[in-house]
Amino acid sequence: MQQQLASIVATARQESAAVTTRAEMEAFKARVMGPNGSLTQVMKGMGSLSKEERPVVGRLINEAKREVEDLLAALLAKVEDAEIGSALGAPADPSLPPPDAPAGSAHPLSRTRERILASFRKLGFTVAEGPEVETEWHCFDALNTPADHPARDMQDTLYLPASFRSADAPRKGTEAVLLRTHTSSVQVRTMLSRKPPFRIVAPGRCFRRDAVDATHSANFHQVEGLWIDRQVTLADLRGVLDFFVKETFGPEAETRLRPSFFPFTEPSFEMDLRSPNLGRLSGRWLEIMGCGLVDPKVLELCGLAPQEWSGLAFGLGLERIAMLVHGIDDIRHFYANDARFLRQFA
Ligand code: DAH
Known about the structure:
By secondary structure, the chain is α+β, with helices and mostly antiparallel strands.
């Protein structure tokens, strides 16, 4: 029986090499696996075997069957290729993208960013962008952040080697080049390049020399906001940010402004959020962004007369918002590219 099986497989292998059309493939399949096929005949013979022989022969039959199935799978691929080739009038090109490729989906951070930008667009904000590699002047000096401020420390901030200096800085000593620590530098570039009034939101990547853990990443994202106009007030700040929070977290979400300090705003606040719909964080006040009215010193440094212009500004962490909205407990999930995580947002 062993020999018989070996010869069935050998014959099948030989015959399969000659198959080129679907009809030939079907005929081949019938000859081996059909009701009267050679392999089927052997299987039918199992009944006449002794108890001891049966498992041994059964295993051999299964092996032969698997070999024939592999041959059939290869034949099917060959026949389909040929069919596609003749339908196209040319051989199938396997390097072409398949017409029905899985579509993939936007990354949860991209989705959160788009949602946030959509809320601010409703209030007349447009999107502005700036470089990730920034000068010390745009990142710190112009934002009224003094030379001895800890954020400027080599230990906290990723500077490029001293051979990279930028001509894009107005003063000697401010032309060092670094990876921006926040998107607030886009405020500066916008005030320098556009005539107020304007309202912008600036999404983008930021970098800090942070040790990576569940809530810190050396690479993260912020969305910055700036509204420059005549007589912008704290009431505007509250109105804009409340609107955003309710759009993002639902109408039950409450906010509060807590006095704080930033060198580039006066007064400065942290905005806190409280909502009954945040899973285990429900009902707790959670800090979600820094904000304030633009410090007149910053307006001046960016060429706007503080007697004429005023502004509000805010900056929020995209990861933090996405984590709160989706109940994600570890920032590292965003960068691991684990399809099991990403698929949940598809
Ligand atoms: N740049 C601040 C940070 O990275 C966030 C921030 C706070 C931005 C207050 C602002 C603001 O525009 O007004 O921590």
